[in-house]
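Handout, section 3.2

Students often ask what a structure token actually looks like in practice. Rather than define it abstractly, here is a full record for Molybdopterin molybdenumtransferase. The first block is the sequence as you would receive it.
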Amino acid sequence: MEKLADKIAPDPVLIGVEAGAHEELPEGALAGLRDAMIAEVSADALTPDAAALCAADPAMTVQQAKVRLLAEALFNLQRAEGPEAALQAARPGAGQPMALRAALSARTVPPRLKDDCFAMPQGVDWVPVDEALDRLRAALHPVKPARLVPLDQASGLILSSDAIARRSNPPRQNSAVDGYGFAHAATGAGPQRLPLIEGRAAAGQPFDGAVPAGAAIRILTGAILPQGVDTVVLEEDTALDGAAVVFDGPVKPFANTRKAGEDVAEGETALSAGHRLRAPDLALLSALGVAEVRAFDRLRVGVLSTGDEIVASPADPAQLHQIWDANRPMLLDLARSWGYAPVDLGHVRDDPAEIEARLTGAAAKVDVILTSGGASAGDEDHVSALLRRKGTLSSWRIALKPGRPLALALWDGVPVFGLPGNPVAALVCALVFARPAFSLLAGGGWLERPGFDVAAAFSKSKKPGRREFLRARLTPEGHAEVFRSEGSGRISGLSWAEGLVELPDEAVEIRPGDPVRFLPYPMLGLT
Ligand SMILES: Nc1nc2c(c(=O)[nH]1)N[C@H]1C(S)=C(S)[C@@H](COP(=O)(O)OP(=O)(O)OC[C@H]3O[C@@H](n4cnc5c(N)ncnc54)[C@H](O)[C@@H]3O)O[C@H]1N2
Ligand code: MOO
């Protein structure tokens, strides 16, 4: 095996950067790369990423950046599909452009999570919420491969590289209004009378000629300013007098015009890696000529309910000792509203063999598993027992109400979040722990818990030693009222609420009017 650095040398940028990761590329895989790059193979597809690399390292040329990106793509292809695929992609010949393109869109395979990533040090009993979150954050990293995605398929995906403007917006100085354009220098204070020249400038129909100083031209919104025009007067502020336009001066220089690149300049980072694409982002990237983005594949979230008492669907009959599954539809919808792909893993009875088989099947098709029920240590708490036997479980006893037990484990390398069975506890744990953790796994980075202070519309004496979340909503005055019961099986309160009130770990005495932290559901991604 030859080193990539030698193959593409003399290219100092590559030495060291790729030395570690790319040494294992098969002999010959990189042979035609440099020529291919000189022929600008895949040049367009690479431009945004290459520009991002160059922005981060001013010493790097665009060409070097493109070579480096292709080398990475080949390496990823090799990891995903083997050395022959990498060799094939790099082999000079008629098929090379397509093959290199395929290599670029091939999966970049992230490293696996460590088996002991959720381990809690010996002797730790109650873990404060903030510490539990710090531990989760340290244990996890993005698990999804990234690839090039056409913009029209990218809604909701998370960028894995910065999206760079291919062109400025607006590309040229243009008019912000319908009116008349002229050179500012030829105008002054008081009544102005400028002869109109033949023709007009419209968006999509630029005026090719020049406008002489002291003359004006009809111009429409979005039209590029013709040569000789730097200022536009609004149509409503003018009158026509035969073949001249009349208005009151002075008009400010550059009035009613938009500077080239005043919105975004070519080469600027329009959106940073880690950003999740929403409707306005699609508008922005389209406006900047970005037809493809590099984005992580969507995180697949499996949701499994456990318990002998659970009946999977409310359409099925349930006896009095049975309950309909409330957590699974809630958690599946939560995964969807967070922008992930929900995968319904159904319901499984309290039978270790069945749970084991279901988890094993699930681990092959999802990136993370949410279970509910059986998370504590009772006789029938099979999820914890099973995960413990597999050797990768950490039962975290969190100083939190509701939601004390949280079981974290890896099953065949896939993280399992074992939520408590009580629906209120399941939702609170999902919002507090799964939301930031999933975002990290998906490539969106860790998410802080957003919220703001409002006046309390309730009284409460809170004990020390644990964080508490209350189901809450705002009164018409904007004060936080809380649900009448704190019982963690009272599902109606979740539905009544429009968010949560978060109370600190310490003891607090709350009186009406005191500030409390309110976390609206939509800010937690629950829509
Ligand atoms: N001796 C102790 N008992 C309990 C403790 C404890 O620390 N010591 N903790 C309590 C708390 S707090 C919670 S929360 C629950 C958590 O228990 P599990 O996660 O083991 O959950 P289960 O016992 O299976 O279920 C609890 C409760 O939730 C209902 N449930 C379960 N799944 C669903 C579902 N999919 N939809 C609707 N409801 C569901 C289940 O029927 C139970 O009523 O443990 C306490 N006990
Ligand atoms: O997690 Mo339990 O439901 O705290 O009450």
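Discussion prompt for tutorial groups: The first strand starts at residue 126 and ends at 128. How would you have guessed this from the sequence alone?
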